[in-house]
Every structure is written in structure tokens, then in C-alpha cells.
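User: Predict the structure for this protein chain, please.
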Amino acid sequence: MKGRAILALMALMCLAGCGGQTGQVGTAVPGAQTAIQNKGSDTMVNLALAWAEAYGQIRPEVQVAVTGGGSGTGIAALINGTVDMANASRPIKDEERADAEANGIEPVEHVVAADAIAIVVHPSNPVDGLTIPELAAIFSGAITNWQEVGGEDRPIVLLSRESNSGTHVFFLEEVVRQGRADDETLFSTDTLLMPSSEGISAEVRQNPNAIGYDGLGYVTDDQKVVAVAPAEGQPYVLPAIDTVKDGTYPIARDLYIYTIGEPQGAILAYLEWIMGTEGQAIVKELGFVPLQGAE
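Assistant: Here is the predicted structure, written as C-alpha cells:
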């Protein structure tokens, strides 16, 4: 009897702790519950946590476990089959998709919200607007003094997310390289790589020379947001839900969840809720941009 009890306990521990390549309906856990493992984008982590908490109120039998780590980390976990859903603030790369397929996994993309990447500086900074070419020159190190873009004679302190961040990848490709596929420009070697959006916010608040970029949902009142123009002579536009939806703000992107194959069961129900009225209301509440027609 004692031996059977130990074996039963070990089986329960494995069931609760071993994810495996479920990917379709979530993992059954003791107590007639379903666990969904959700990992990835730090930009999306607060949004994902809010979704999970709200969904748990209406579907207490479904447990959604959310962790961050960056878009690359989430996609890597999906490739390995250790999560059900990967959050990403950038599209999956071709090489990541190839790695997944080599592992017998088909990543399926779901657009769940949109976002603006805001350019943030210290409130005392007199610079109100920058063009995409100016931002490219600043973050690549070609422009190193605020005086070169209409500010004071001060050195520019560059802040960026770490390279595993989807926001880092998007900003590198669309701003530093200005959307040119053949451009190999990199961030300046003087750039301070911050482990989180909160890290960028904290540094901007205390450093009058700093400039960083962050998802719109992470911008606080004690930072100054700089308007952005696609090029010299074109309108400067501030990031907002309306300017993302009408396409006038030039640094905007979709936010994604990737699943292993087409979702089914509990995962499908959760995704449909996220993309429905209640889930999209949370998107708007946290400062991100809801899907068209879902408000």
C-alpha cells in the first residue's frame, strides 16, 4: 500500500510539473483543472498577466501560467514544445520557424493587439520631435550630442532593450535600419542595454541626457514622449491609440501569440476570449491598441 501511494504521488507531481508537447488543449492538472503555459514578450507580460487574471475569474477551472523573458525566449520555448502559447512583440523569424518545423512543431500566428513604440526622454529635455533618420543616427552613434537635433549641449545617453527582446529587434530593423533589408547598421556600442521596460523608464526619469524607447503601455506621466516624423518636412505625430489605428504614427507594430498548430480546446477558447470584447477592453485599459472592431 505504501509503495502504491508513493507511485501515485510521483504521478501527480509529474502531471502538474511536466508540460510536454501538448500545444492543443493545455495540460490537465489535479482537481479537474487545465493549465496553459504562456511565456515570452516582456512588453506583453503585464497584458498577459491581466488577461490571465481576468479569465481566471470567469473560468476558474483554467489556470494560465504567465512568464516573461523576451519574445525570443518565448518562441524558443514554443520550438522546444515546453509552452502552449508564446507571446511575441515581433513576427517569428524564418530561422525560428525552420527550427520549429525541424522539431515537428508548426507555429501558428495570432495577432492579438497592436502597439506604438514611444520615444521617451527626461521631462527637462527641450526636444519635442525627431525624424526616423535622426533616430537612426542617434541610436547608431552618428549623432552623439543633443545640440545636433535642436537640444542643449549635452551628450546623448542611449537606452535600449536587450537583444532577446522583440522590441529591440523591431526597433533595430524598422528605425535604426529604417526598414531596409540590406542595411546592417547596429546599435551604438555605447548603448546601455536594459533588462526590462521598467528599467528604461527608471533611467529616463533620473537622467536628463537619456533617450529610450518603450511600448506605449509602459509610458508614464513622469517621462516626456517625443513626436516622430517619417522624414524631414513631414508631420510630427505622437503615439496614441488613434494615431496607430489611422497609420499616422510611424513606429507601430502588431503584438502576437504563437501556438503549436491550430489551437483547440481550452487554448482556442482562451484565444477567442482574448480577441473578443472583454480581452480587448483590457488591451485598451493598459494603454495598448485593441484590434479593429473588437472594442
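Residues 1-23 have pLDDT under 50 and may be disordered.
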